[in-house]
Design a protein that fits this description.
The structure holds 2 protein chains of 2 kinds. By secondary structure, chain A is mainly alpha-helical. Chain A contains 14 helices and no strands. Chain A has a domain of 204 residues: MetI-like fold. Chain B is mostly helical. Chain B has 12 helices and 2 strands. The chains are: A mainly alpha, B mainly alpha.
């Protein structure tokens, strides 16, 4: 089998290269937020309520200090977006790491050993998927928030979001990895390793796992997009990040109240950033899927196209 | 025992197990969230009296005893009284059910009517310009979170153009006990934006699904056979191929029902739609434990029943299922 090198192909495909470049820039902007951002939205001393609800710079009443205008508290929207992007991406990637960890362990063990363990986890996965990630996450976070109380929940929000979105989505990975394990398990190299007396754990993690790399890479991109959307949706419902430490979702939520009075930019600009991020990840994910497995028809993407 | 009967019993048994698990989680929530005594007697009662009341009302009973009591009441439809509404929680939930159900029906109709023709078109003419446009817009559709679609629908059609109302259900009409907005003009006008919002997120998924299933079916030998027999194109596409496309679509539709219900929570929040999801979030903010528990149980029952029915239907209408 020919080894697929996605990174070399990336430089040959203009569209995908642009997607990747844009994503890289967004990631960089998020990482460097404290350096790039002209204002510190968390530093109350620098915020002046007199600056509140200023429209973007290019409009008649815009202020040169604020490119995208200010929100209801007078915070610079460009800066809150950079910091918000940082939180959104952190939660998205963190949640996918949790999914990956759970999915790899469960998928490997279920696929390799089969039997009751396999049957149990796959039924559990079916049931959990039928409830839909977002529903599970809404209910779990709602209950957690009611249990902890709104104030102490605010400090735990990042951790809670990562764990809840991570746990709610493990079946996606577990299923994919299990399917690859079932295919790999029958191959000669596994038999060879087994007959040499290699311990099962070493066969699973050292021999089989590296061969499941390409499906993992493909679904990971889509999963990150889904996790970011889920976080935004949960924050929009008031179950995620608080307004004091906003992610893109909570920025959109806090702007929503002002939309009806015509102050559109508070919610519109973070929304556009969110859509650009998701769209880029999804396009890149689609491209990656086509490259990694030319035979795969679009149907696998549909299963993973989440909330 | 015939095969389908074994399967049916097996499947219903599993459904009951899932329901038991949900009831257990609901009970854990009820047992740990808030203090029912405070809601009942307020602040004016001394600590000693409270303890006595706790004992009398059975709040100090062993865990499993309390769970047993919870379960037996739940089976009789008694999930406690809502703190906020001072009414049985189940009753409060079921009162909100028709509003959510209207959204689900409207969305299902729109998705079905649009996804099948569009998906078929994309499968039959995969290289046509229109097909490419449909596929591109479908990936954009998937990438725009449902609450943003809702926000912009409100901004455009309600704030800027004043064409459609932005919140609430409007006038409803009672049809055999089902309070629906489909039968009045005002109700329909209120339904448009929320249903279109929900459709915007579900439709891309189904267009892609119909397309890929149809493309696969069109490759199968029996379709080639149909072509060879010289059957008219329409008949091959819309009778032979479409029929075989719909089976997996129905199954996925059942699985996606859960997502649809989750999206209704978002949509109801945006449009202040007086449905179950909107009320659930309100109940969370007020820590109205009985209402939270009732919502969990009702949603659990809806999920389990839908999924069981979809699975059973699949088994019944799929001639291949017997072999598996």
């Amino acid at each position: 089998m020919k080894k697929i090198q996605p990174f070399r192909l990336l430089f040959q495909d203009k569209g995908a290269f642009l997607n990747a470049l844009l994503l890289f820039l967004i990631l960089l902007a998020a990482l460097l937020a404290p350096i790039i951002a002209p204002h510190d939205p968390y530093d109350l001393a620098t915020i002046d309520i007199m600056d509140s609800e200023l429209p973007p710079q290019w409009l008649a009443e815009g202020d040169a200090r604020f490119i995208f205008g200010t929100d209801d508290q007078g915070r610079d929207i460009f800066s809150t977006i950079l910091y918000g992007l940082r939180i959104s991406l952190f939660i998205g990637i963190g949640a996918v790491c949790v999914q990956l960890l759970l999915g790899v362990v469960i998928g490997l063990y279920a696929g390799y050993f089969g039997g009751r363990l396999d049957a149990f986890f796959m039924r559990l996965a079916d049931i959990q998927l039928s409830f839909s990630t977002l529903m599970v996450a809404i209910i779990a976070l709602a209950i957690l928030q009611a249990t902890f109380g709104a104030e102490s929940y605010e400090n735990l929000a990042v951790l809670m979001l990562i764990l809840v979105i991570g746990i709610a989505e493990w079946p996606q990975y577990a299923r994919t990895i299990r399917a690859s394990v079932l295919a790999e398990r029958k191959k000669d190299y596994v038999d060879a390793a087994r007959s040499l007396g290699t311990p099962s754990r070493k066969i699973m993690f050292g021999h089989i796992l590296p061969n499941t790399f390409s499906p993992i890479l493909v679904i990971s991109t889509l999963q990150v997009a889904n996790a970011i959307i889920a976080e935004a949706a949960l924050s929009f419902l008031g179950l995620g990040m608080p307004v004091t430490k906003p992610s893109l979702g909570s920025l959109i939520r806090s702007g929503f109240d002002y939309l009806l009075s015509g102050t559109w930019w508070i919610t519109a600009i973070p929304a556009i950033v969110l859509i650009v991020v998701i769209l880029n990840i999804n396009l890149l994910g689609d491209w990656l899927r086509d490259v990694m497995d030319p035979r795969a028809v679009a149907n696998r993407a549909d299963e993973h196209a989440g909330p | 025992m015939p095969h389908w009967l074994t399967f049916t019993i097996h499947r219903i048994g599993q459904g009951i197990l899932v329901l038991l698990a949900i009831s257990f989680i609901s009970f854990l929530v009820q047992d740990n969230l808030g203090d029912p005594l405070r809601e009942m007697v307020g602040q004016a009662v001394s600590e000693a009296e409270r303890e006595q009341l706790r004992e009398d009302l059975g709040f100090n009973a062993p865990f499993m005893t309390k769970y047993g009591r919870f379960l037996s009441r739940a089976i009789q439809g008694d999930l406690g009284d809502s703190y906020q509404f001072k009414q049985p929680a189940l009753h409060v939930i079921l009162e909100r059910f028709p509003a959510t159900f209207d959204l689900v029906i409207g969305t299902t109709l729109l998705v079905t009517l649009l996804a099948i023709p569009l998906g078929c078109y994309c499968a039959i003419r995969p290289n046509a310009f229109t097909s490419r446009m449909i596929m591109v817009s479908s990936i954009v559709g998937i990438s725009v979170p449902v609450f943003l679609t809702g926000i912009y629908a409100i901004y455009l059609f309600a704030v800027l153009l004043h064409w459609l109302p932005s919140y609430g259900r409007g006038e409803t009409m009672n049809l055999l006990g089902w309070e629906t907005g489909f039968l009045t003009l005002d109700g329909l006008r209120h339904l448009v934006l929320p249903c279109v919002t929900l459709t915007s997120i579900m439709l891309p998924l189904f267009i892609r699904l119909v397309r890929s299933e149809m493309m696969e079916v069109l490759q199968t030998p029996f379709i080639r056979m149909a072509w060879a027999k010289g059957l008219p194109r329409r008949k091959v596409w819309f009778v032979h191929a479409l029929k075989n496309t719909l089976l997996p679509v129905v199954t996925v539709g059942g699985v996606q029902f859960g997502s649809l219900l989750a999206y209704t929570v978002l949509t109801e929040t945006i449009f202040q739609w007086p449905g179950m999801g909107f009320m659930f979030l309100d109940a969370i903010n007020r820590v109205d434990t009985p209402l939270i528990v009732a919502y969990l149980m009702v949603v659990g029952v809806i999920f389990v029943v839908t999924n069981t029915l979809v699975d059973l239907t699949y088994r019944l209408i799929n001639p291949m299922a017997e072999v598996e």
